[in-house]
Design brief:
498 residues; alpha/beta; Aldehyde Dehydrogenase, Chain A, domain 1; Aldehyde Dehydrogenase, Chain A, domain 2; 2 domains; seven-stranded mixed beta sheet; six-stranded mixed beta sheet; 16 helices; 39% helix; binds nicotinamide-adenine-dinucleotide; MeMal-semiAld_DH
Length: 498
């Protein structure tokens, strides 16, 4: 049985771990590896290694730090097939989707290869008599990232790339359900020229996270996962005096206006609702057609597409949707589908009881489509995180907008229409962080930033883009006066620009 160790001070190690957790193959339900769970001593070793490495790394000029990322990007591309296979084997998503997971993370590493430019400060010459003022961005020291299972490459790369390029050392605590790719990424960074200790990876669940949140030598914490844990991480890290950003769950609505191209909208809903088995924080889980005629047309377009959807293991190149992550997740989704039926929604496509020959023990879930869903139903209130799409019919555009805005989550949303005025109004008024106009999954590119509103994000500053450079650095502002400017003796009043 393969053992997945931590990555501390440049080497993979099980450290002091006495406990291990099974890592499953979601397509077969078999245990394929076990992952070491960090003890307090393992976390302390990782932090000690990070603290020792950080000053020299911060003193390495930004251009040299950036070059490590140039090399890293090339190495990820070299090993893309191997990384994608490893990712799919633990997560279950298709190989092409696994490559998408890696590439969307790699793009953030490409973005931070511009660190010398991104880290430039501000300068004001002659801010007062003989006075120059300048601001510089300095690393926070040791940062930590805690990541979810659903993007085991992209989300670690969102965090570690800007943190490290800015001169920090970093502790990554990836999801214990699919921990191999993060360790592989750490090994590739060493191969790319990163000094040992600048990136350490420790595995574990709640106790590892609690150790990070309480550790005096960790200055900043970035979290991505479910909303209850995001709230907890935000509150606990802040109470311990740390800088923190914590991103949570989602319930993303897509509005379909009567003038939308129904075939394009249906294709968009297929990828956004069922891609990666619905296990994306930017998945569309609620379709909101405006008017009964629009609803009937979109459902008529969706049904044959869903019935044709090819569910299968990542090892089958024809698969369009893989299994969900665990048996518990599969059971939870099945219970929610039953609750939808009991609470009066119409099950327009019934994915219940799905099995795949040869993979009877895998965590495959058949795709379901609900019509006539109302906001009181559990399938509307819960983030299902599975291949279940709910249609909530609305009478008017204003009703559809209100539904989206009244939802407690605010990660992503989209509108499908040919009417520029409606699209513009929607983008301006909706209280959601990422908006798509005829784009169902509006995940911003690396040089913009990613983040939701409301219960989808706590704290300030988004992932990647210039926000990430701000999050992983502190501003220091220097006011300098040289002797030739001092001519009038001491001053005792608060200095103003009079
Ligand atoms: P999760 O909240 O269960 O786990 C996330 C991380 O927290 C993992 O590293 C896990 O080990 C740790 N953790 C789990 N329980 C904990 C506890 N009690 N105390 C402290 N730490 C704990 O999330 P998940 O199931 O891995 O991922 C799916 C969730 O993540 C979904 O809700 C999804 O919407 C969300 N997500 C959000 C974004 C975003 O950018 N907003 C992106 C991806 C995923």
């Amino acid at each position: 049985m393969r053992t997945i160790g931590h990555f501390i001070d440049g080497v993979e190690t099980t450290g002091n771990s006495a406990e291990f957790q099974d890592v499953f193959n979601p397509a077969t339900g078999e245990v394929q590896a076990r992952v070491a769970l960090a003890t307090e001593a393992d976390l302390n070793a990782a932090v000690a290694s990070a603290l020792a490495a950080q000053p020299k790394w911060a003193a390495t000029n930004p251009q040299r730090r950036a070059r490590v990322f140039f090399n890293f990007v090339a190495l990820i591309n070299r090993d893309m097939d191997e990384l994608a296979a490893l990712l799919s084997a633990e997560h279950g998503k298709t190989i092409e989707d696994a490559k998408g997971d890696i590439v969307r993370g790699l793009e953030v590493s490409e973005f931070v290869a511009g660190a010398p430019h991104l880290l430039k400060g501000e300068f004001t010459e002659g801010a007062g008599p003989g006075i120059d003022m300048y601001s510089m961005r300095q690393p926070v020291g040791v940062g930590a990232g805690i990541t979810p299972f659903n993007f085991p490459a992209m989300i670690p790369l969102w965090m570690l790339s800007p943190a490290i390029a800015a001169g920090n050392a970093f502790i990554l605590k990836p999801s214990e359900r699919d921990p191999s790719v993060p360790v592989k990424l750490a090994q590739l960074l060493i191969e790319a020229g990163l000094p040992k200790g600048v990136l350490n990876v420790i595995h574990g669940g709640k106790s590892a996270v609690d150790g990070i949140l309480a550790h005096d030598d960790i200055a900043a914490v970035s979290f991505v996962g479910s909303t209850p844990i995001a709230r907890y991480v935000y509150a606990t890290a802040a109470a311990n005096g740390k800088r923190v950003q914590a991103f949570g769950g989602a319930k993303n609505h897509m509005i379909i206006m009567p003038d939308a191209d129904m075939d394009k909208a249906a294709d968009a809903l297929m990828g956004a609702g069922y891609g990666s088995a619905g296990e994306r924080c930017m998945a569309v889980s609620v379709a909101v057609p405006v008017g009964d005629d629009t609803a009937d047309r979109i459902i008529a377009a969706l049904k044959p597409r869903i019935e044709k959807l090819k569910v299968g293991p990542a090892t089958d190149a024809a698969s369009e949707m893989g299994p969900v992550i665990t048996q518990a997740s599969k059971d939870r989704i099945a219970a929610l589908v039953e609750s939808g039926v009991k609470q009066g929604a119409t099950l327009a496509v019934d994915g219940r009881g799905f099995t795949l020959q040869g993979y009877e023990n895998g965590y495959f879930v058949g795709p379901s489509l609900f019509d006539h869903v109302t906001p009181e139903m559990d399938i509307y209130k819960e983030e299902i995180f599975g291949p279940v799409l709910s249609v909530v019919r609305s009478k008017t555009y204003e009703d559809a907008l209100k539904l989206t805005m009244d939802n407690p989550y605010g990660n992503g949303t989209a509108i499908f229409t040919r009417d520029g005025d409606a699209a513009r109004d929607f983008a301006a008024r909706v209280n959601v962080g990422m908006v798509g106009i005829n784009v169902p999954v509006p995940v911003p590119l690396a040089y913009h930033s990613f983040g939701g509103w409301k219960a989808s994000a706590f704290g300030d500053l988004n992932q990647h883009g210039t926000d990430s450079i701000k999050f992983w650095t502190r501003t220091k502002t220097v006011t300098a006066r040289w002797p030739s400017g001092i001519k009038d003796g001491a001053e005792f009043q608060m200095p103003t620009m009079k």
